[in-house]
Specification:
The chain has 154 residues and is of the alpha+beta class. The chain is built from three helices and twelve strands, in the order αβββββαβαββββββ. The chain has helices spanning 3-10, 55-63, 76-82, and strands at 15-16, 18-24, 27-33, 36-40, 45-51, 65-70, 94-97, 100-103, 108-120, 123-135, 141-144, 147-150. A seven-stranded antiparallel beta sheet has the order 3-2-6-9-10-5-4. A three-stranded antiparallel beta sheet has the order 1-11-12, with no helix packed on it. The longest helix is centred in the middle third of the chain and has 9 residues, at 55-63. The relative contact order is 0.22. The protein binds flavin-adenine dinucleotide (FAD). Flavin-adenine dinucleotide (FAD) is lined by residues 17, 28-35, 49-51, 54-56, 81-84, 87, 89, 92, 143.
Length: 154
């Protein structure tokens, strides 16, 4: 099986879009990610999967904290910026929760301490113990087949 077939198959799983953020010293860092899921209710745990080639990987290893901001369908430009698809620093607006940057006006932001991490192939799964949550009303940004879209109830 080639990489393209694997990517095409995985791309058929429709997801939301998040920006993972962390803070090292006085420097905030953000990265678009859709490999995010809720893991446990008691205790409250989530996970993200970070490529070992991403700058974010070293940053989270150092800070041992991260936040996940779930984007609205008005934040496609934010996703593109933090994925390095279309640089536009003017769309970057952080709020801070317990010293961790989160994306302003995101649908939800979840702030975590790293509870555990697992190196799996060329990615690391960081398990986050949820410390704080912020919610805002809006509609989610969706990602399917390599394209951005919006969600509609059926
Ligand atoms: P960089 O490439 O250095 O940063 C990414 C961008 O964010 C750059 O444009 C940078 O200027 C900007 N930026 C970062 N911090 C700041 C700041 N403080 N202020 C202003 N701008 C800033 N990769 C994964 O590993 N896991 C995933 O789950 C994942 N999901 C993805 C989902 C989607 C929909 C897309 C489009 C991409 C996904 N990626 C994922 C790929 C990942 O987003 C890119 O490879 C990204 O460029 C890697 O970021 P980096 O940490 O190497 O940082």
């Amino acid at each position: 099986m080639d990489d393209r077939t694997f990517r095409n198959a995985m791309g058929r799983f429709a997801t939301g879009v998040t920006v993972v953020t962390t803070q090292v010293g006085d420097e905030a860092h953000g990265m678009t990610a859709n490999a995010f899921m809720s893991v446990s209710l008691d205790p409250k745990l989530v996970t993200i999967s970070i490529d070992h080639n991403a700058r974010m990987y070293e940053r989270i290893k150092e800070s041992q904290q991260f936040a996940v901001s779930i984007l609205t369908d008005e934040q496609k430009d934010v996703s593109m910026h933090f994925a390095g698809q279309k640089e536009d620093p003017s769309v970057v607006e952080f709020d801070y929760i317990s010293g961790i940057p989160v994306i302003r006006d995101a649908l939800a932001s979840v702030v975590c301490d790293v509870a555990e991490s697992f190196e799996v192939g060329d990615h690391t799964l960081f398990i986050g113990q949820v410390l704080e949550i912020k919610l805002t009303d809006g509609n989610p940004l969706a990602f399917f087949g390599g394209k951005y879209g919006s969600y509609q109830p059926v």
